[in-house]
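Quiz preparation item.
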């Protein structure tokens, strides 16, 4: 599973070298962080609506869009998916209450 995320991260990095008229991702980078964040908000909303509708195929489709745009944001910020995976691994085995208590020691 992580291989797919790593492959996508590599492609997203490559798209930074392309012009906005050559690639959708390059056009997102060209429009800037605010535009990327707006796309994440739109995709999050579409994911919520799909979940409320209970359409499993739509939930998967919209979640994929949401994750994709979050990966674009990470790449834009010079971050990779492995950092998010590492954070999830750090939290693994912690209760939600323990994790929340530790947040005072980590930036939000």
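Solution:
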């Amino acid at each position: 599973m992580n291989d797919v995320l790593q492959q996508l991260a590599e492609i997203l990095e490559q798209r930074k070298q392309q012009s906005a008229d050559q690639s959708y991702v390059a056009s997102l980078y060209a429009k800037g962080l605010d535009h990327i964040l707006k796309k994440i908000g739109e995709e999050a909303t579409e994911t919520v609506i799909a979940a409320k509708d209970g359409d499993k195929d739509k939930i998967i489709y919209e979640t994929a869009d949401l994750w994709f745009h979050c990966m674009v944001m990470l790449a834009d910020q010079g971050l990779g998916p492995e950092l998010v995976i590492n954070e999830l691994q750090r939290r693994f085995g912690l209760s939600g209450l323990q994790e929340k208590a530790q947040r005072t020691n980590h930036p939000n």
